[in-house]
Amino acid sequence: MEKVLKPMSGYLALLICLLLFIASAYLFITGTTAENIGTTILGAACFVVFFFFMKGLMIIQPNHSRVLNFFGKYVGTVKDNGLFFINPLYSSQKMSLRSENLQGQTLKVNDKMGNPIEIAVVMVWKVGDTYKAAFDVERYSDFVKMQSEAAVRHLAMSFPYDNLEDDHAPITLREGGDKINSILEQELTDRLSKAGIIIQEARISHLAYASEIAGAMLQRQQATAIVAARTKIVEGAVGMVDLALKKLSEENIVELDDERKAAMVSNLMVVLCGEKAAQPILNAGTLYN
């Protein structure tokens, strides 16, 4: 479990280091000039103490941290920025706390219906628990890459690309939008929490059918769109024909028998449902000629 430390300021230790360095240089030079072995040894001792104190000085940049160990035992994590002094016997591991982007590679997987698709995601993440990131996984950056790929594959196999084959699918990859992204974020959070990683945002950046079926699926989508449009046209045309017949009957404009009504309906349907404008033909004779 992560433990945050508050070490002492390093400015006093830095001042002591400077004094020790000056004293060691002075004593060493004086002892060498006067051929005084004791003074030379004292100067060397001051230099050793100086080096020992310097090893305990630590500078932490903003949004960085240091994970401290004492002979293999976790001591704590320093997250404050500035100059600090710690036990010189501590070993430290640098760790960034800044947000990082990961642009995943385009993966070719099968969706829920078995269709090969191409999918890629972009995510923003950062280290939240330094203890887990440092000790629970081997290399947390590689762990993020591998687990994000596994999460994307699982997401793609859990939902159909669209509802062409599954009309009752509540969520599809193509139309899921924010809900799909929310499911992706939760999937990544569950997988990466063991490494102390926080997922700040995850979005699908690329989604398409695989090249080998893209042409066929495009034709299928076009055909579905044409059928849907034709259905709307026919529904509208039937309503207009029904309205026309009712108006003619209510206004007593003309009396039509069943045969003439059938002919009128046929002509109106051709005019209303045709792809091109109909050419009008004037009837100069009677209604029945």
Automatic annotation (TrEMBL):
Keywords: Membrane, Transmembrane, Transmembrane helix. It is a single-pass membrane protein. It is found in: Membrane. InterPro entries: Band_7, Band_7/SPFH_dom_sf. Its main location: membrane. Residues 55-221 form the Band domain. The chain crosses the membrane at residues 12-29, 41-60. SUPFAM superfamilies: Band 7/SPFH domain (SSF117892). SMART domains: PHB. Pfam families: Band_7. It comes from the Bacteria. This is SPFH domain-containing protein. It comes from Chryseobacterium gilvum.
